[in-house]
Amino acid sequence: MENEPPSYDETTQNATQNEASGDEKIKVWKFDLSLTFIKSIGGIFNVVLIFFSLLCCIILGAAKRVDCYAAYTSAYGFYNFAFGSCILTYILRYIIYIFNLNTRLLWVFPWLIWNPAVSLFFAVTFFISSIAVVANECGKYYGGYKAAAAFGFITFFIMGAELAYNIYLLRRDHPPTENTVLLFVGVERKPPGNAPVYDQDNTTSDSPEESKY
């Protein structure tokens, strides 16, 4: 029958493959979603940053005054750009990771490098845009703009925490290299010539699934 549920052997085989890959999955309709990513530190950071970025955009929109927007359009526009682009970027990344598309796109995006680079970019833009909102006259006298700046700084600190976590994963899991930038952030230097290779048991992660997230 076409609607017959999968046999025990098929179900067991799928479960065995998931365990072997270190990735716990949950089936929703016809899709296998990565439960490992949803519960991971990276997945939690992703959701929290989407929520706070959306909250920042809502607060700034609620505080809107025509005279302030006319006088400081560039400052508020940059604020909306910073947090709005973060929402779109992190929603896209969440979709990529939850469907395990990151493993298929490794040749396009080296995620260990890409993730801290994205975190650094948004941390800088959050900091600058929050200062821009609170530094002008409207930011000094109107509570709505003060709240937008305050939540902007909160989101900046959360992004900074994610950046630190992504750098930790980069330093822990990236193979030895001679790249100057990677060496600067603490990645192990590639041994010269025919130097002996160290015991892999001392360099591999206790939680390999974290490297993906």
Automatic annotation (TrEMBL):
Q: Where are the transmembrane segments?
A: 41-63, 75-99, 111-135, 147-168
Q: Does the keyword Membrane apply?
A: yes
Topological category with respect to the lipid bilayer: Multi-pass membrane protein
Q: Where is this region: Disordered?
A: 191-213
Top-level taxon in the UniProt lineage: Eukaryota
Question: What is one cellular component GO term in this UniProt entry?
Answer: membrane
Looking at the record, the residues that make up the MARVEL domain are: 37-171
Where does the record say this protein resides?
Membrane
Read off the InterPro entries from this record.
Answer: Marvel, MARVEL-CKLF_proteins
Sorted alphabetically, which keywords does the UniProt record give? Membrane, Transmembrane, Transmembrane helix
Q: PANTHER family recorded for this chain?
A: MARVEL DOMAIN-CONTAINING PROTEIN (PTHR22776:SF49), MARVEL-CONTAINING POTENTIAL LIPID RAFT-ASSOCIATED PROTEIN (PTHR22776)
**What protein is this chain from?**
MARVEL domain-containing protein
Q: Which organism is it from?
A: Mytilus edulis (Blue mussel)
